[in-house]
Structures
1.
Amino acid sequence: MAKWLLRIFGVLLLLAAIFVVNAVWFKPFSSRVFYERVFLEYGLTSPELLTQLRLLESFGIRSHNAKLDDRSRQAGDLQFAKMKTDLATLRSYDRAAMSEAEQLNYDMLEWFIAHSSEGERWRYHGYPVNQLFGVQSNLPKFMVSSHPLADVTDAEHYISRLNQFQQVFLQVVEDLKIRAEKGVIPPRFVLEKVLAEIQGFTKGEVKQQLLYKHFADKVSTLADIDAATTEHLQTKVAEAVQQSVLPAYQHLSSYLQTLLTQSSTDDGVWKLPDGDAYYAYMLKQHTTTDLTPEQIHQLGLAEVARIQAQMTEILTAQGHSGDSVAAMMSTLGDDAQFLYPDTQDARLQILADYKTILADINTRLEPAFNIRPKAEMDVQRVPEFSEKTAPGAYYNAPAMDGSRPGVFYANLYDIRATPKFSMKTLAVHEGIPGHHFQIAIQQELQGLPTFRKILPFTVYSEGWALYTEKLMAELGLYKDDPYGDLGRLQDELFRAIRLVVDTGIHHKRWTREQAISYMTSNSGLAASDVEAEIERYIVMPGQACAYKIGMLKILELRQKAQNELGNKFKLTDFHDVVLKNGSMPIAILERVVEQYIASKKQAGV
């Protein structure tokens, strides 16, 4: 009996070895194994992503938390080569023999890798260091918001990462030099704002630096670390900041000052080599459609007119009059009843009020959702060192192991940019049932390849968040609150204006000032918001167009389902279909909804 058991065990071991060898070194027998290999290989090249997701910690694997991503040219070469190999392997599987569900996996990954591979042509286009994001702001944010600090090992990993700042910044500067040689130089205002940000971030003594203070505050609260160890660790952090972090920022600052002398005030990517083709690529990346810049521009103009007409009706009903919607909304924005005082206490109150609003929203969701995310969500202030140039708000995903909640970050730099009538809509978009529902639920999906849990498509994620703004109006969030509804419509108007100004800047060659003028004269938004937004579109071509296009498509598909299913249509089922499949390109979203409609018809219930 023992011999038979040993033989069976040996056979099983051999089969397992064959499976592992096949999965790692050859084309996997199963496409599902291939999907996991692709994800794992990509994850292993990005220790920062692994830290954010926290997928390996539950297996006791933590060494990646001591490393930063390799941003060298050689690493980029390997990544593009790998994408081409992975795409060829993926296409070697027989898609026609796959089930409907497996075809969905195949098509999503195929779209993503194929489009990303096309991006090699534009590898050195764009501005990876700018006033919104880049190593100078993203790396400190990552260290503060994602790097764990729960024990001595985490602390040592933190110090290891600080000591790698200098190498990472050297790689980034080399990348910027390659771009400059190819004629890809950011507009002057971008460089000026990044230089000001670096100066603000690095000023003061070492122990006043964010990366030191954050570490010292966290470690001092850990009961398992004695005073002597704490003091030793803090000394090592101070040395790392002095010897690696600050020199890294100085090196970047010196190069940007040199680059400033070569910059211009031209703002659109039309100025770059093959700029028009690059813009078309970026529009496709963010919208996943083949809409032309002119089509998007005209759609934006039509949506601006439609939404302004709705707003005029509400404003008139509330007794307001003026030359334009923008003028009337600007007047509302100056009304003291809608403003918080410009104090630190008021800023804390804003965060508390957002939490109250979210609690109210949560009570209204039952008619629309069968599914809720398990992950918790918090509301926090945008880090002060970056808030001057940061967007009005953004969302950070929760850790997959539940150790970190999702976070809705509110920018409180200009308190006038947070009128009370706009807060409900922002809480919906960034929180629930907007980004927190969409992203947290996607991460929690069961039975799907891991890549499906994290794959980003802007048109889907931002389209969903904007769609939920309208959805919550339908669910009564603004009942008896006409000013709150005006805030919602102003935000939708803002997204329609984006279609006009993004294409205006990059296709019609508008200047930064022309775009600011158009948005100001049509939106009524705070001047600080308008300037930051226009500058955002300049460094992120095409991204701002995804919101409205995604929203309109989800509404179109919902209406189609209602029309074809009649009384068989359930809003909760429709949202299940959209959310339980994760992020996807527009064409695949359409297919998924059409399959849902067909299955409901066939079921007869």
Note: Residues 29-122 form one domain.
2.
Amino acid sequence: MSEIAAKVALRPKRRLIVWRLVPYLLLQALVVIATVLGLQLLQPSDPDDFALSGFSLREDGKARPVTLPHFTSSRYSLADPPLYTGAFTFKGGDAGWSVFLPRFSNAVEVAINGVVVLDSRRDTNANRPDRNTPEIAAIPSSLLHDGSNEITVRLFVWGPLKGFLDTVYVGPDAALRPAFETRTLLFVTLPVVFSAWQSILAVILAIMWLMRRREPVYGVLAAAMVLGVIQAFMPPPVPPVAVSRLASVLLASAPIESALIVVFGVLFFGWRWPRYGMLLFAPGLIVFAVGLIAGPPLPRILFLLLGIPTVGFSLVLMACVTAAAVVRRQDAASLTIGCAVTIVLTCWIHDMLSVFEFVTNERTFVSRLSYSAMLVAIGAGLTWRFARALNQVDGFAGQLVARVREAEERLKASFAREEARARAAALANERTRLMRDLHDGLGGQLISIVALSERGHEGATITDAARAALKDLRLVIDSMDDIGGDLMLALGSWRERAAMQLRPHDIALHWRVATPQGLPLHPELRPWHVIQIVRILDEAVTNAVKHAAARHITVTIDTRDDGHGPYGVISVADDGGGFDLGDGGEAAGANQTARGLRNMRSRATRCGAVLVLSSDRSGTCVRLQLPQVFPDSDAAAG
């Protein structure tokens, strides 16, 4: 049942493949028809009024009449080249005649009345069959005479193809020159332009590959283009000149270039290159090795037997790859490349028909031209895709920057709101602390004054309570001043109040600053910190006045450093009788004294400070060690 279900599931998929493949194949058939028609229409028209077709051919020691275009029977004839002899009529009134040869292979030597006027071996580009390079030469007027004139064409053939000579044209230069220029434009200038574009795109693609090593498709196509450029711009030597083996190795560039194009197609469409696919490079490597070892003409023969079929096989493989990509991807890139491959494959078949002489009246090779055009189109497409990707990245980066700016603005607004809330909360906390301090200090004093008045106590007692309330009010007001984190300013005000408090009791206040800077600056210092510290010092002085019977009180201010940073120390010492400390460091005996000491420790803890109390018969010392950084809230210290 599972096999039946699998077959049923495959049917819709196959139908979809067929539904996509059939239109694509029909489109490629139309491309083939358009290419064939285009090859026919692009054939330049030659001046038939000046055509010479009838010649006498002397080849292999025999003479026979032939009609141009003509293929020789020999593939190698350098020692005794075929000699075509013909005649043309010159009228004395005409001037400026030329001889025009549209196509030939491999080289020609033209003589008028026994004098050589054209030798194509001087132009290396004219001796390559794939170039279709035309030749034209002016005939000196001194060589021409009225009536019949003789023309001889010697055809040098060095294989591996048979020699070919197209129709020869002799006539006024003004009539022949336009046809020559048209052929030069099509078969000389246009390939050079394509090769130049190909070289530029090869450099661009190589740079793109260096920038994006993870995408080898750019490097593969650049390598293929470089091989094509080398093949286009490096002309082979002309026999019988000493032949360079390196030049014969250039024949291997075509099959290797075709194999690289197949690799490009496989990678471009997202498939993995199979290991056995490296066999596609074997024919080109064989031609390369034989060219290095043996030299000509063997590399040319191997190129004809191995190189040309490899090119055709690679084009067929590329057509299959693009067809599979069109079925799977259904995008414009695969469709465009598929049409380009079909055009090149059609041109290659056209050239093969000429090679095997199925087309007997012409030998015009267009594969190289169409191949370069395809590479230029693919390279331009890749460059355009890369540029579009960069534009998309730039657009994304622009959107990202805009979003980051928006997020930054939102964060700034959020920070502003949080800062406003923090300021409001700090203000509320300060108000709460101020209210609590006023309630605990001034409020208690005012209640005492009211209670004393109602009970009818003497004025002196009420006066003392009013003074204490006024003192407490001044303390709260002074603590609200902006001291810029300098606690010494608050201690200076406290010193004046302490001296006024001690003067009626005949107690001397000694002020000692151990370090020049006094106490360290604390930018984080808040008014409520100042209140807690001052109340601790007030409590220490009050205890010395009420309970110690002291005659001298010494306040010492010092700054110390334990290696982790500076911190301040304030000590209040008296020479009173002292008191006993319990096991927990609290005062033993009087509940009021013990409660005062607990309040002092609580205030110190709220400020993040440490309170150390020592007492003996020589006196009492209250040592307050300030923190390096004061806490933001009184709950920070626990």
Note: Residues 365 and 596 are 114 Å apart (CA to CA).
3.
Amino acid sequence: MSAPEQQRNAEKAVDNAANATARHRQLNAIWWAILLSAAFFSIALSIFSIFNLAVPLREHTGITIPLLALETQYFYAMMAFLLPLVFLLYPVWPGVGRMDRVPWYDMVLAALTFVICGYFNFSGEAIIDDGWEYDAPAHATYMTYALWLICLEAARRAGGLVIFLICALLSAYPVLAPWAPGFLAGPAEDWQTTASYHVFGTESLIGVPMTAFANLVVGFLVFGVALQYTGGGAFFLNLAFALLGKRRGGPAKVAIFSSGLMGSMSGSVITNVLTTGVMSIPAMKRVGFRSTYAGGVEACASTGGVVMPPIMGATAFVMAVFLEIPYADIAIAAVIPSLLYFFALFMQIDAYSARFGLSGLADRELPSIGAVLRDGWYFVFVFVMLIVMLVYMQQEAQAPYYATLTLLIINQCSKNHRWGWRQLLEFMVGTGKLFTELAAILAGIGLIIGSLSLTGKVGTIAYELVDIAGDNTFLLLLMGAVTSFILGIGMTVTAAYLFLAITLGPGLERAGLDALAVHMFMLYWAMISFITPPVAIGAYAASSIAQSNPLKTGLEAMRLGTIIYFVPFFFVLNPALIGQGSAAEVFTVSCAAIVGIVMIAAGLQGYLIGAGTLGDNSAIHWLLRLALIAAGLVLALPGGELVGFTHLQLNLTALAVGVPALALTWLVNRGREPARLAPTG
């Protein structure tokens, strides 16, 4: 790829990233200074809290930081710095009003939010010692009502109307419980008790979501933003082109590699599509991929990046706090499912490329792997450093800060990537925007958890769901998948996961399923809406770059991502696929899944590597494809008690269907040359 072309694509990536955040106001210098200050103090508070620096600071200098005396004070302080920014950055409605100034009412809301959260921070000891959760002073009670409404409005602006409606209705559930339908009905709590519980209790506003955000997510967000602003995205993209660009279907394979890594950094499907897609999609089209296929590949790769270790987006950190297990355990559990997903994408692309004779890019268009590594070796180094600290040193809260510091020091020693003041300010602004959006959404979701905790309905819901399913585990899982998908349409992945974790999760666990597998199942299904029509917003974002039909691109993405609809069922029915089991069991089910995926990919794309095209478009062609898909699914399905069949029984069944299909495919293709042109459209 020539230097001018790389420069043009880089500029397009920047433009697309800017368009992705166009709903933010364009603030003047004063407001930017406030945003920068809030981001700086949020990071500083996180560092002081996580590294427990307040104690040595007091011992050596005599300076005390009253903001951090208690963990609850730390949470109130983070809210005081971040929630007001929602009203500065986001207008009341997207596209309504001027985007170059902050109206007076948003200034008032921002100031009121800061004052209330600041007051609760300084009153942290009194809140606990005097039991404000049960008997708060009158003025504090009025403040709880105000903060409740403020958090709902902040969630609406940052997360959308659907999140607002769900949070608003369920946060008021303790008061409205007598009018709830069926088993959801219960005794009512008064408004004062509910508001006090939401704000002062440790199970609501400052519960699991805010705990995960303040203690884990902040550090990894800083690391992810630092990677992007130091050129990590460009490095991984160039590395992918150097490694895979000249292989058959090379640009599509590049998209898998680069988008997977980029998505792991950003945690955002849309941002990932709009930044890596401007380089990968045109390259795919240039070597012969259909525009809808190219868009589908990018959408699937970007979606998979959200569950790609070592950084899996905010949801995984929330999961760690919710399950009370180390984040490293979740990252390790996600390795096999994410590799199976990307392997399925790779095999489909390879089969498609072989079927239609699609080559890779010419050597002159590709960067040298040596030059790429010489320029950005330290990105690999900090990733390895992060993994070592997470897995072996078990320093999950501190690890991202050490990795970020190392990255920035090395970056400043590089002549090509060294930051100036402008780059530092851009980094802080990007960090502040990311903090603000996530903090607002998690605050709203915390209100839901608080309501169910206050009413004690979590256990009741779990029992009723199991009763509705009639102790049928498969039906309960299907109910969970459909619910996850529906919620994923209108909510962020994190919000959808948290809602299901407190309602559906206990029911699935009560049915005898592994807790970690259950929560991974909900995470996967919550993100499937990004590639599934009629929503498929990841695919629609890719179609805007590919200049293709959005619905056809979504359908193509759905076909390419087929395995993601089955993998969650596989690992929840047999947790060996998430590393929960003996080494022999993990090895057996993983190998079977790999072979099964090869057969599924062949059936979906109409080409079996080593045998050729699965006939023409006659009846035998479709019969062979269906046989391979069925055999592959049976082979990939892990045996076990919940499935009702052993590994051997499933493997023999798959062989009985698959071997004749393989043999017939080989016979049909003897002496036949594959087609050399991809279909148009």
Note: Confidence is low (pLDDT under 50) at residues 1-21, 675-681.
4.
Amino acid sequence: MLSRLVSMGHRVVLIVDNCGIDLHRKLAAKIASSNCLLSVITVEYDINDDELQDTDIFKLEAASSDLIEKMLESRYPAIAPPSRHVIARFSEGNSRVAFALAETAKNGESLARLKDTDLFERLFHQQKAPSAELLDAAKACALLYSFDGETLDGSESELSPLASLAGQSADHLHKHVAELHRRQLVQKRSKWRAILPHALANRLAKRALEDIPIQRIEAAIINRSSARMLRSFSRRIGYLHDDEHAVALAAKWFAVGGLLEQLGKLNTLGEEIFENVAPVNPAATLAFIEEAAEKHEDWFFSEQNRNKVQILRAVRSLAYESAKFERCAALLQRFALNEAPGARESTVDPLKSLFSLYLSGTHASAAQRSALVNTLLKSSIAAEQELGLTLLGEMLKTTHFTSHHSFEFGAWKRDFGLHPTSGDQVRDWYMQVIEMGRAAEASSSGLSGRVRRVMANQVAGLLRIGMFDEVIALARAFTENSGWPEGWIGVRNAMRRGNGKISEVAFKKLEELEERLRPREALQKPRASLVASGA
């Protein structure tokens, strides 16, 4: 083709993708030896920094995570933002890796699995002769999220135990790590190294767990009493929830005599390991927390639990699945009810965050959440009633949905939780909550006034999203008894904010509702004045 193009004498640019260095040299020599108008552009993953005559070399650096996320959003709009963020992090700026992970994620629950064998071969071998020793070295190093790549000897050496897993000497492993760095598969910062992109490292780590006896891995990493190596190893394991060896290892750590047996009294290292491996087997993690809570019920939900913050974060993430919601909510509820006055970390907030319409981090239905709130409201215990009122107000909220909680959980595919998109779905949510609140108000005279105030606080928002008939029905039920001056204030607020912004028909309904709720009795007017003034 090149000879034909040269003979034509036209100005042509020939572009050759996946072009090895030898082919590039032949093409460049052919062009240089002929007086032609032809130029050639070759694209290759690795050119070994060779100085090529009559050739300009341009190196494309990895894309930023933000750019990768935007590309994923454009090509894979069905993948939720939390999952796109994880894929971008695992791909380390390599768009081909990111797209391969996204393709896998479309039909599975793992964001870490690089199933594309051709892409793996291209990334790892880069058209060089396959080397079993280099692959063994990479597998051993990939077991750690990062490792010390310079210290060869002594108790602080991490190359020595990794080399033993690879069946090599520390010197040989050091040489292979250097070669992986030249292939841009190892990141280097000071003495620290890391196999990258992490999608490649995760695949290599899974191969290592298959090929290396787990007893050897435990002897080299776990039993060496190296906190840094163990922390790094647990972080890698946390991304391998679809690997049976990683699942078995996490179960061993949860078992009697395991690394994490003393949940609630773990030191800082134990806390980090627990958070790292919690995503490996969600069902086992939840059962482990419940077992620890039952075994140490006298202090587990109190300030004596040194790992409370980590447990709360894990339980909130485990509540993502609707099938686990009730069990997770029950744990969070017990923490909230046992919160000491003036506690630094709120135990109510993680539970409360699960009850908003959007950004809840759970796919539990409105019925599931309403059932728990209803149980709390009907309790004879004042603290439980107060918690129920807090959650009722959260479920009724119609605007300003925010969250400071993380929606990522290891390498699991995640989104922001239940996200009603149609008007009917949104209406169904609030109808269930309103009916639940109305029933709770009617069932307890002692709770009636507080339920009314909580629901009145959200009247303006409910009217703003078009829940006219539902609020009118609620107002009719409340006014049959002792009136609802708090609701009247809410309607007046909705009228003030909506004047000129809503249709005449809707505004007429608001006027009729305001007339119905307007205080008339001598005792209601002072109450309305106090409510209006914020007293």
Note: The longest helix spans residues 423-443.
